[in-house]
Design a protein that fits this description.
- The chain has a domain of 194 residues: SGNH hydrolase (Rossmann fold, 3-Layer(aba) Sandwich), CATH 3.40.50.
- It contains 8 helices and 5 strands, in the order αβααββαααβαβα.
- Strands 2-1-3-4-5 form a 5-stranded parallel sheet, sandwiched between helices.
- Strand 4, helix 7 and strand 5 form a beta-alpha-beta unit.
- Helix 3 packs across helix 8 and helix 6 packs parallel to helix 7.
- The chain is globular.
Length: 291
Amino acid sequence: MAIRAFWKRLAAVAVATGAAALGLGVPAQAAPQPLPYVALGDSYSAASGVLPLDSSASLLCARSTANYPHVVAKRTGAVLKDVTCGGAQTKDFAGSQYPGVAPQLDALGTDTRLVTMTIGGNDNSTFINTILSCATAGIASAGQGHPCSSLYGSKFADEIDTKTYPAVKAALEATRSKAPQARVAILGYPWIMPAKAQTGCFLKMPIASGDVPYVRDIQTHLNRAVQRAAAETGATYVDLSRASEGHDACQASGVRWVEPALFGTNFVPVHPNALGESAMADLTIDALGLG
């Protein structure tokens, strides 16, 4: 029986080899299908301020073809549908942000397999109010003391806890409902300010020296709220806190990932530059194991 089994296996190998040589009968392994990928989110996803602009997007969105979703798609071969838009809030997932701009969730479907986003920084105008309020206070005090934290205390953090966190969680839940087969990743925001005041940064980011940790803490609070919402909805949180350390808006050009309010290179200040968007793409690919 052993000899008969040997000859039968040998004959099968011979037939398969001959068929392969003639191009017959042996099915090739199917090539992997490109990943259907939808990018949602705000100006940090859209790379507002970075050229070149995406001609398929509304000019009001200031979307760049150098944003991290485009970089992720290029490096992974994913098929990208990009609906990111500068200024987006969580409410713009379900509603139209601008005339002619569809709700972002409309881009999702049961065939979607990957979703990425940054969202939450514009809810309650957290970012713009923090920067404008603290810059105004910093200029008034000639960069001395901590006028912003004295004026506003826990106001920004309280709004993040009571309004932004539940809104981000609801946005993630709605995303899951529209794209139940997709892996969903939400990114934290890269550092805008360093942990401590730095000499010369006031000319680029006019925040009083004593308020630099205060502004940083507001961003820490926001990122933790986003991370919490991700954990409670089964999304992947892409943590930028360690990687973006030392790449804040106070650093030199070519080092910083976020451009400063003054003397920067982006036409939209206090937003990631192309280097920052590329780094955000790398971290997203690593977090999702897409490399």
